[in-house]
Amino acid sequence: MDPYLLRRLNKERAARRAVLHLTDLGDGRDRVIREGDPVAGPLGEAVTAAFRSGRSGVVEAEERKFFLNVHLPPARIVVIGAVHISQALAQMAKVTGFDVLIIDPRTAFATEERFAGIDLVADWPEDVLKTRPLDAYTALVAVTHDPKIDDFPLSQALSTGCFYVGALGSRKTHAKRVERLKALGHGEVEIATISAPIGLDIGAASPAEIAVAILADIVAHLRRRPLREATP
Protein backbone atom coordinates (compact mmCIF):
# COMPACT_ATOMS: atom_id res chain seq x y z
CA MET A 1 0.00 0.00 0.00
CA ASP A 2 1.23 3.45 -0.91
CA PRO A 3 2.62 5.24 2.20
CA TYR A 4 0.58 8.35 1.41
CA LEU A 5 -2.64 6.33 1.28
CA LEU A 6 -1.71 4.56 4.50
CA ARG A 7 -1.16 7.87 6.29
CA ARG A 8 -4.48 9.15 4.98
CA LEU A 9 -6.25 5.97 6.05
CA ASN A 10 -4.80 6.14 9.55
CA LYS A 11 -5.66 9.84 9.85
CA GLU A 12 -9.31 9.17 9.03
CA ARG A 13 -9.49 6.23 11.43
CA ALA A 14 -7.93 8.27 14.24
CA ALA A 15 -10.59 10.94 13.72
CA ARG A 16 -13.39 8.31 13.98
CA ARG A 17 -14.41 8.78 10.36
CA ALA A 18 -15.52 5.91 8.14
CA VAL A 19 -13.09 5.12 5.36
CA LEU A 20 -12.67 2.41 2.73
CA HIS A 21 -9.54 1.15 0.96
CA LEU A 22 -10.50 0.10 -2.58
CA THR A 23 -8.18 -2.04 -4.68
CA ASP A 24 -8.69 -2.95 -8.34
CA LEU A 25 -7.79 -6.65 -8.41
CA GLY A 26 -7.04 -6.43 -12.12
CA ASP A 27 -4.28 -3.84 -12.18
CA GLY A 28 -3.60 -3.35 -8.46
CA ARG A 29 -4.45 0.35 -8.42
CA ASP A 30 -5.95 1.48 -5.15
CA ARG A 31 -7.45 4.49 -3.48
CA VAL A 32 -8.95 5.61 -0.19
CA ILE A 33 -12.62 6.58 -0.16
CA ARG A 34 -14.21 8.45 2.74
CA GLU A 35 -17.86 8.04 3.65
CA GLY A 36 -19.74 10.50 1.50
CA ASP A 37 -17.16 10.73 -1.31
CA PRO A 38 -18.99 10.52 -4.66
CA VAL A 39 -18.53 7.20 -6.48
CA ALA A 40 -20.76 6.70 -9.51
CA GLY A 41 -22.50 3.65 -10.94
CA PRO A 42 -22.58 0.06 -9.70
CA LEU A 43 -19.26 0.50 -7.89
CA GLY A 44 -20.75 3.43 -5.98
CA GLU A 45 -23.69 1.25 -4.95
CA ALA A 46 -21.28 -1.42 -3.70
CA VAL A 47 -19.27 1.18 -1.76
CA THR A 48 -22.44 2.55 -0.15
CA ALA A 49 -23.55 -0.96 0.84
CA ALA A 50 -20.12 -1.67 2.34
CA PHE A 51 -20.18 1.51 4.43
CA ARG A 52 -23.63 0.60 5.76
CA SER A 53 -22.85 -3.04 6.55
CA GLY A 54 -19.24 -2.62 7.64
CA ARG A 55 -18.33 -5.81 5.76
CA SER A 56 -15.21 -6.02 3.61
CA GLY A 57 -15.05 -8.25 0.54
CA VAL A 58 -14.73 -8.65 -3.22
CA VAL A 59 -17.31 -7.05 -5.51
CA GLU A 60 -17.75 -7.08 -9.28
CA ALA A 61 -18.65 -3.86 -11.04
CA GLU A 62 -18.15 -2.57 -14.57
CA GLU A 63 -16.68 -5.96 -15.59
CA ARG A 64 -13.89 -5.62 -13.03
CA LYS A 65 -13.26 -7.05 -9.57
CA PHE A 66 -12.50 -4.85 -6.60
CA PHE A 67 -11.59 -5.56 -3.00
CA LEU A 68 -13.31 -3.22 -0.56
CA ASN A 69 -11.60 -3.07 2.82
CA VAL A 70 -13.95 -1.13 5.11
CA HIS A 71 -12.84 0.66 8.27
CA LEU A 72 -15.76 1.89 10.36
CA PRO A 73 -15.25 3.59 13.73
CA PRO A 74 -16.41 1.28 16.53
CA ALA A 75 -20.07 2.16 17.00
CA ARG A 76 -20.90 3.04 20.59
CA ILE A 77 -23.91 3.63 22.76
CA VAL A 78 -23.85 6.40 25.34
CA VAL A 79 -26.61 5.86 27.90
CA ILE A 80 -27.67 8.76 30.12
CA GLY A 81 -29.07 7.17 33.24
CA ALA A 82 -27.93 4.17 35.31
CA VAL A 83 -31.39 2.61 35.56
CA HIS A 84 -32.72 -0.95 35.21
CA ILE A 85 -33.15 -0.56 31.46
CA SER A 86 -29.50 0.52 31.22
CA GLN A 87 -28.33 -2.60 33.05
CA ALA A 88 -30.01 -4.87 30.51
CA LEU A 89 -29.10 -2.70 27.51
CA ALA A 90 -25.42 -2.54 28.46
CA GLN A 91 -25.08 -6.33 28.54
CA MET A 92 -27.00 -6.86 25.29
CA ALA A 93 -25.10 -4.10 23.51
CA LYS A 94 -21.72 -5.58 24.45
CA VAL A 95 -22.75 -8.96 23.01
CA THR A 96 -23.86 -7.18 19.82
CA GLY A 97 -20.45 -5.53 19.48
CA PHE A 98 -21.14 -1.97 20.63
CA ASP A 99 -18.91 -0.03 22.96
CA VAL A 100 -21.04 1.19 25.88
CA LEU A 101 -20.72 4.17 28.21
CA ILE A 102 -23.14 4.83 31.07
CA ILE A 103 -23.30 8.36 32.51
CA ASP A 104 -25.28 9.33 35.59
CA PRO A 105 -24.42 11.90 38.29
CA ARG A 106 -26.64 10.08 40.80
CA THR A 107 -24.14 8.00 42.74
CA ALA A 108 -26.86 5.87 44.30
CA PHE A 109 -27.60 4.51 40.83
CA ALA A 110 -24.18 4.65 39.19
CA THR A 111 -22.43 1.93 41.17
CA GLU A 112 -19.89 -0.68 40.15
CA GLU A 113 -22.03 -3.38 41.74
CA ARG A 114 -24.92 -2.62 39.37
CA PHE A 115 -22.72 -2.19 36.28
CA ALA A 116 -19.85 -4.61 36.73
CA GLY A 117 -17.52 -4.60 33.73
CA ILE A 118 -19.27 -1.62 32.12
CA ASP A 119 -17.69 1.76 31.38
CA LEU A 120 -19.50 3.86 33.99
CA VAL A 121 -19.01 7.52 34.92
CA ALA A 122 -20.82 8.99 37.93
CA ASP A 123 -20.76 12.61 36.82
CA TRP A 124 -22.85 15.19 34.98
CA PRO A 125 -23.11 14.60 31.21
CA GLU A 126 -21.99 18.14 30.37
CA ASP A 127 -18.71 17.47 32.18
CA VAL A 128 -18.16 13.95 30.79
CA LEU A 129 -18.89 14.91 27.19
CA LYS A 130 -16.22 17.62 27.24
CA THR A 131 -13.54 14.93 27.15
CA ARG A 132 -15.58 12.12 25.57
CA PRO A 133 -17.55 13.92 22.87
CA LEU A 134 -20.40 12.46 20.86
CA ASP A 135 -20.01 11.86 17.12
CA ALA A 136 -21.74 10.40 14.07
CA TYR A 137 -20.98 6.84 15.18
CA THR A 138 -22.59 7.29 18.57
CA ALA A 139 -26.12 6.38 19.66
CA LEU A 140 -27.41 8.55 22.51
CA VAL A 141 -29.99 6.97 24.83
CA ALA A 142 -31.53 9.20 27.52
CA VAL A 143 -33.50 7.33 30.18
CA THR A 144 -33.39 9.29 33.45
CA HIS A 145 -36.74 11.13 33.09
CA ASP A 146 -34.91 14.13 34.57
CA PRO A 147 -34.55 17.16 32.26
CA LYS A 148 -31.62 18.44 34.31
CA ILE A 149 -29.69 15.31 33.31
CA ASP A 150 -31.17 14.37 29.92
CA ASP A 151 -31.62 17.67 28.08
CA PHE A 152 -27.97 18.66 27.64
CA PRO A 153 -26.80 15.37 26.07
CA LEU A 154 -29.93 15.24 23.88
CA SER A 155 -29.14 18.72 22.59
CA GLN A 156 -25.51 17.74 22.02
CA ALA A 157 -26.55 14.59 20.18
CA LEU A 158 -28.75 16.57 17.80
CA SER A 159 -26.03 19.13 17.16
CA THR A 160 -23.35 16.49 16.63
CA GLY A 161 -25.38 14.31 14.28
CA CYS A 162 -25.43 11.09 16.30
CA PHE A 163 -26.80 8.28 14.15
CA TYR A 164 -29.42 7.55 16.81
CA VAL A 165 -31.03 9.71 19.47
CA GLY A 166 -33.65 8.20 21.75
CA ALA A 167 -35.40 9.38 24.90
CA LEU A 168 -37.59 7.52 27.37
CA GLY A 169 -40.95 8.99 28.33
CA SER A 170 -44.60 9.29 27.42
CA ARG A 171 -45.86 11.45 24.58
CA LYS A 172 -46.85 14.09 27.14
CA THR A 173 -43.36 14.03 28.63
CA HIS A 174 -41.81 14.26 25.16
CA ALA A 175 -44.02 17.21 24.19
CA LYS A 176 -42.55 19.18 27.11
CA ARG A 177 -39.08 18.00 26.07
CA VAL A 178 -39.68 19.28 22.54
CA GLU A 179 -40.46 22.75 23.86
CA ARG A 180 -37.28 22.78 25.94
CA LEU A 181 -35.18 21.69 22.96
CA LYS A 182 -36.75 24.40 20.81
CA ALA A 183 -35.74 26.90 23.47
CA LEU A 184 -32.17 25.60 23.08
CA GLY A 185 -32.28 26.45 19.37
CA HIS A 186 -33.25 23.16 17.75
CA GLY A 187 -35.78 23.11 14.91
CA GLU A 188 -38.78 20.85 14.52
CA VAL A 189 -37.22 18.73 11.77
CA GLU A 190 -34.12 18.13 13.88
CA ILE A 191 -36.14 17.28 17.00
CA ALA A 192 -38.35 14.91 14.99
CA THR A 193 -35.35 12.60 14.53
CA ILE A 194 -35.50 11.66 18.22
CA SER A 195 -36.94 8.21 18.82
CA ALA A 196 -39.62 8.97 21.40
CA PRO A 197 -41.20 6.93 22.83
CA ILE A 198 -37.84 5.21 22.64
CA GLY A 199 -37.23 1.97 20.76
CA LEU A 200 -39.22 -0.12 18.32
CA ASP A 201 -42.88 -0.66 19.12
CA ILE A 202 -42.87 -4.33 20.16
CA GLY A 203 -45.20 -3.97 23.11
CA ALA A 204 -42.26 -4.08 25.54
CA ALA A 205 -43.17 -3.99 29.24
CA SER A 206 -40.21 -5.08 31.38
CA PRO A 207 -36.85 -3.26 31.52
CA ALA A 208 -35.22 -6.12 29.58
CA GLU A 209 -37.89 -5.99 26.87
CA ILE A 210 -37.54 -2.22 26.58
CA ALA A 211 -33.78 -2.72 26.24
CA VAL A 212 -34.39 -5.18 23.39
CA ALA A 213 -36.63 -2.62 21.65
CA ILE A 214 -34.00 0.11 22.06
CA LEU A 215 -31.12 -2.04 20.82
CA ALA A 216 -33.09 -3.21 17.78
CA ASP A 217 -33.94 0.40 16.95
CA ILE A 218 -30.27 1.39 17.26
CA VAL A 219 -29.13 -1.42 14.95
CA ALA A 220 -31.78 -0.48 12.37
CA HIS A 221 -30.65 3.15 12.41
CA LEU A 222 -26.99 2.19 12.12
CA ARG A 223 -27.46 -0.13 9.13
CA ARG A 224 -29.94 2.11 7.32
CA ARG A 225 -28.38 5.47 8.07
CA PRO A 226 -27.88 7.99 5.28
CA LEU A 227 -24.19 8.34 4.56
CA ARG A 228 -22.65 11.61 5.62
CA GLU A 229 -21.16 13.96 3.06
CA ALA A 230 -17.39 14.00 3.14
CA THR A 231 -15.77 17.20 4.42
CA PRO A 232 -12.48 18.61 3.11
Radius of gyration: 20 Å
CATH architecture of the largest domain: 3-Layer(aba) Sandwich
Counted up, domains total 2
Which percent range describes the beta-strand content? 15-25%
Main sheet makeup: 5 strands, parallel
Low-confidence stretches: none
Which short descriptors sum up this protein?
232 residues, Rossmann fold, 4-stranded antiparallel sheet, 5-stranded parallel sheet, 2 domains, 20% strand, alpha/beta
Overview of the structural elements:
The chain is α/β, with parallel strands linked by helices and 232 residues long. It has two domains: 69 residues, no CATH class; 149 residues, Rossmann fold. Helix content is 41%, strand content 20%. It is built from eight helices and nine strands. A five-stranded parallel beta sheet has the order 7-6-5-8-9, with helices on both faces. Strand 3 and strand 4 form a beta hairpin. The model has no long low-confidence stretch (mean pLDDT 92).
Give the SSE layout.
Layout: H1 3-14, E1 19-24, E2 30-34, H2 41-53, E3 57-61, E4 64-71, E5 76-80, H3 84-96, E6 99-103, E7 119-121, H4 125-131, E8 138-142, H5 147-160, E9 164-167, H6 171-183, H7 188-191, H8 207-224
Parallel strand pairs: 5-6, 5-8, 6-7, 8-9
Antiparallel strand pairs: 1-2, 1-4, 3-4
Short description:
The longest helix has 18 residues, at 207-224. With 232 residues, this protein is α/β, with parallel strands linked by helices.
